[in-house]
Amino acid sequence: MKAVGKAGNSASYRQGYGEGYRLGLCQAVEKRVAQAPPYHRDMKILYIPQGFHAIDQGVTAALRSLVRECIVGEAPNMLELATRERPDLVLVMNGLHIFPGNHLEDIAKIRGMGIRTAVWFVDDPYFTEDTAPMCTAYDVVLTHELACVPFYRGLGAANVHYLPLAVNTDMFKPQHPGPGHVYDICFIGNAFWNRVSLFDEMAPFLEDKKVLIAGGFWERLTRTDKLGRSLHMGFIPPEETVNYYNGAKIVLNIHRPDEYGQDNRNSHRIKAKSINPRTYEISACGTLQITDLREDSLSHYRPGYDIETFGSVQELKDKISYYLQHEEQRLEMAWRGLWTTRMEHSFMSRMKSLLELV
């Protein structure tokens, strides 16, 4: 019993030392990120959120530090607020899902008052069936999907810009994970069919590793004989996701499929080129990310330097094995990813770009 106790204490010590080392270097990286020069626009903005907690918080905090006044409203009250507050700009996040069916009528009335309007589509291209009829209703259309810029212009939207997503660095950041959040490999997201197929194929390889697979619809997985203990069914809030990202040695990022009918409404069959918000969020936690490659990935990160990528299941298995065995290389890449993200991909940086565009 004493030997077991000593072994357990030794393992706990090594884990604590390793976590302290990781966080110490993360803090050094964060301190070296240059402070942005002062920036201020004499504007009053009415922001209408979508309900994406992490994104909405990041957008709101950034705008409130960059403009004279930022008011946050709700979609059903948008017209009433705009009439009373008379903002310089009404910024709508996504305009989908929770927005009432008549919200475009409200946008038309707001524009009729001489108030500028903008929408930022951040679910592209997965809901083009819904965004296509909306894009001409706004003065400015912003999309995080590179491939949707010519699509919206072709539909008659006169002022369309590419604006990639970003990360809320007040939420997604290096921190001490709780003991229940420590894993070799972590994936958090819904079980779209491409993800199910990948994990089913990798099940024998992952069986002897400490793995977390969390999100909705994972009852679709067939290899529960090998991965059942790794499954966490249901939504994990962003605040807890941060703990899992910090506690994992490797976080996987697998983009959702863009094929129409594969859990999306991309009836215009736009081929996805751009990266998801998870790309920024994982790297902002100072953890190694291995992701499938999108065409626009190279505009934001450098595979093999500040992010790792895979093009096949075998390549993914090989890279997981390598980085689990080479801690120093894994941590170095994670630190470089943190540096890139803090320097270039915060909501503060994105909101400055947005204000220039609108």
Summarize the entry for a quick read:
The protein is α/β, with parallel strands linked by helices. It is 42% helix and 17% strand.
Name the average pLDDT: 94
In whole angstroms, the N-to-C terminal distance is 68 Å
Q: What class do helices, strands and sheet pairing give?
A: alpha/beta
Outline: globular
Strand content: 15-25%
- Bin the helical content: 40-55%
Number of strands: 12
Order of helices and strands: HEHEHEHEHEHEEHEHEHEHEEHHH
- Uncertain runs with pLDDT below 50, 5 residues or more? none
Calculate Rg over CA atoms. Answer: 22 Å
Number of helices: 13
> Order of strands in the sheet with the most strands?
2-1-3-4-5-6
The profile of the biggest β sheet is: 6 strands, parallel
Fold blueprint:
Layout: H1 2-32, E1 41-48, H2 53-66, E2 67-72, H3 78-85, E3 89-93, H4 103-112, E4 116-121, H5 128-131, E5 140-143, H6 148-154, E6 160-162, E7 183-188, H7 193-206, E8 211-215, H8 224-227, E9 231-233, H9 238-247, E10 248-253, H10 277-283, E11 288-292, E12 308-310, H11 313-325, H12 327-344, H13 347-357
Parallel strand pairs: 1-2, 1-3, 3-4, 4-5, 5-6, 7-8, 7-10, 8-9, 10-11, 11-12
Helix pairs in contact: 1-12, 2-13, 3-4
Task: Describe, in plain words, how this protein is organized in 3D.
This protein is of the alpha/beta class and 358 residues long. Helices cover 42% and strands 17% of the residues. The chain contains 13 helices and 12 strands. Strands 2-1-3-4-5-6 form a 6-stranded parallel beta sheet, with helices on both faces. A 6-stranded parallel beta sheet has the order 9-8-7-10-11-12, with helices on both faces. Helix 6 (148-154) links the parallel strand 5 (140-143) and strand 6. Helix 3 (78-85) packs parallel to helix 4. The radius of gyration is 22 Å and the shape is globular.
